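Curious: explain these tokens?
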Amino acid sequence: MAFAVTVVLGGCVATENGRPAGSGAPPGSAAGLPADRADSDTGARTRGSEANDETRRRARIRLELASSHYQQGNFAQALTEIDQAIAVDGRLAAGFGMRALIYWQIGDMQRAESDFRQALTIEPNDAEVNNNYGWFLCKTNRPKESIQYFLTASADRLYRTPAMPMHNAGICSLQAGDEAAAENYFLRAFQIDPANAVAMYNLGEMYLKRGNIERARFYSDRLLSQYQSNAETLWLGVRVARRGGDGVYSNNLAQQLERRFPESRETALLRRGAFQ
């Protein structure tokens, strides 16, 4: 599993002659304010907006530094930077989301969950936080609770990895014992991203288990052709080819598995002949 932390910087609103696009009367005139009062209020609002922008900018700089430390595994320094970012901007959902990941990494589950929930209180539809919190729930033995968060993440059409919440929902549905739901989520992940290796592998395993060899072969062959093989994908290919009656191809994959991954669990199964 890989976590990703995204820092999204706010955009600008198009303006016409210094006013918001489409604005008509001078600011404040609709409320019956005198022109000089309106100008004064506008200036105050502008200064306040500039101060808020500067606050957000400072917080996001800290968050970017924290992200760099996090990716390097320097969790202590990352926490220091995030704490400072949140001190500057207490509404920084991405900051709480990243801090939750770090607490999770260091085993502080209570603080991790608290920060995930705080991030979602601020930004309930944040796709990254929803996906990560869903995975947190799944990995802490609450797979049924996780699904709603994956679905929220997948509903964001701008999410940069839209298939990930779907294949995560599939994995967690399997963990919850709901194979029908898992199949549906893996198929949806594959539909969104036909190169999604997690979806292909799990669909191949599911169809092999059911004896639907043609469908299992479709996903197994596609997986082996698109990605560098590993012990798991080779072992899937061995079993699919063997069940499909292609002994030559099965033996070829088996030889690769033994040669390249001699200490793997899959090679041990191959040597025992545990094809089921």
